[in-house]
Amino acid sequence: EIMPSLVGSEMCIRDRDYPDIKFEKLFDEEWKLIISPTYANLATSIMAGETHPLKAVLLSEYFETRKIVDKYFADNNIKYTNVTEVNTISSILDLVEGGTSFSILPEAFSALKAQYRLEIFDLNPQLPPRTIGLLVAKNRSSKKTVEKFCDLVRSQLTQS
Hints:
This protein is α/β, with parallel strands linked by helices. The protein has helices at 43-47, 64-75, 89-98, 107-110, 143-159; strands spanning 2-8, 21-29, 31-35, 55-59, 83-86, 101-106, 119-122, 130-137. The strands form two sheets. Strands 5-4-6-3-7 form a five-stranded mixed sheet, with helices on both faces. Strands 1-8-2 form a three-stranded antiparallel sheet, with helices on one face. The radius of gyration is 18 Å and the shape is elongated. Mean pLDDT is 82; it is low at 1-7.
């Protein structure tokens, strides 16, 4: 059986704690700075920790992605005028596209650029990639179904 959600690699599954569950890797994701084309010229300043007029648009603090981004901001002295918190990736993309803001998101989300007017930049320094996968029950009759689903997800990601 497939567990109900995708998980990142920071969630550690150890055989001795969960002998009937395994982690099925789907892909590794890189992190990107996203910004409106109007303010793309500020990307280098943002990454350098320089003062700029843009606000950060981030997921709420209870998301693991937010914790990773907050730590990145602190570790790299990234400044912003204030934070707008939202609960969906589409809200982040809408606000960044239409305003004076920026965000850091996994590359899979920034790949939605075709639907939004966004500029996407590599982080400098880069965040380590995050491994995304599924928690699956071991020794179930649906093992082939899980494998086919994982193959489908991987093939869709390589096509985009």
